[in-house]
Amino acid sequence: MGVREIQVAGKTLTIHELEDVCDSVTGRALTGSWVWDSALVLSDWIATQNFDFHEKTVLELGAGAGLPGLTAALLGARRVVLTDIGPLLPGLIRNVEANGLQDRVEVKEYVWGSDKSTSQSGDLDEFNLVLMSDVFFDTEETAALAKTLKRVCGERKDTVVWAACEVRPWTAECLNALATQGFGVIELSSQFNPSNTSNSLEEESFDMFAIFQLIPPNQETDVEAAAPYSFL
């Protein structure tokens, strides 16, 4: 287990990364136990946007270690809900407590495609902002993710959905699958590399990252700008 001190918006977030959390079926380590570079990119990016977090509610899907959601709380969000599968929740809770954000940040178990949160605190509500990092990895999971996004955005016309990911061969397939579910996909920024972020990505890494906005089906958008994504 390691502890990382990550600088965001001039402040420090403490993130505990766990090495002993494994899938009960395969025995493999759950990759959500540590901070991925796309989470660093998303956290840096939202801290530079002209988005008023005051009195806003924020949801992070597939939160892993919870860095982007904790960043939203640090930036003034009224309520943040970090969600992931059950085995990762103790790590999320520890990171919330390590940063003294228990008054504004909740941790809930949530499996994409489920109709309800399994948390005793009840269903997920509609949110002002939804955050995701590195969730475009499996096209078979995309339908479940689309169902979840439609549910948490509800009937709101102003929910913002931001996602960061490392650009991989299957990224376009996942985004296009979301487009077939009625979502607009707009690339907001791309070509990230270590020099673009204030946090310490590996210096020798030349991986590229992109930030996307997903427009829920019930929101109006520019059809051409939100056309199926095919940059790969």
Q: Estimate the strand proportion.
A: 25-35%
Span between N and C termini? 36 Å
Give the helix/strand class. Answer: alpha/beta
- The dominant shape is globular
Secondary structure tally: strands: 9
**Unreliably modeled segments:** 118-122, 202-206, 223-232
Query: Biggest sheet: strands, sense, closure?
Result: 7 strands, mixed
- The CATH class turns out to be Alpha Beta
Give the H and E element order: EEHEHEHEEHEHEE
- CATH T-level fold name: Rossmann fold
The helix tally amounts to: 5
CATH architecture: 3-Layer(aba) Sandwich
CATH superfamily assignment?
Vaccinia Virus protein VP39
User: Order of strands in the sheet with the most strands?
Assistant: 5-4-3-6-7-9-8
The oligomerization state is single chain
Number of domains: 1
Task: Report on this structure.
InterPro entries: Methyltransf_16, SAM-dependent_MTases_sf. This is Protein N-lysine methyltransferase METTL21A-like. One of its GO terms (molecular function) is protein methyltransferase activity. This protein has a single domain, classed as Vaccinia Virus protein VP39 (Rossmann fold), CATH 3.40.50.150. The strands form two sheets. Strands 5-4-3-6-7-9-8 form a seven-stranded mixed β-sheet, with helices on both faces. Strands 1-2 form a two-stranded antiparallel ribbon. It has helices at residues 37-46, 67-74, 89-98, 139-153, 171-180; strands at 2-8, 11-17, 57-61, 79-84, 105-109, 129-133, 160-166, 184-192, 209-215. It is of the alpha/beta class and 232 residues long.
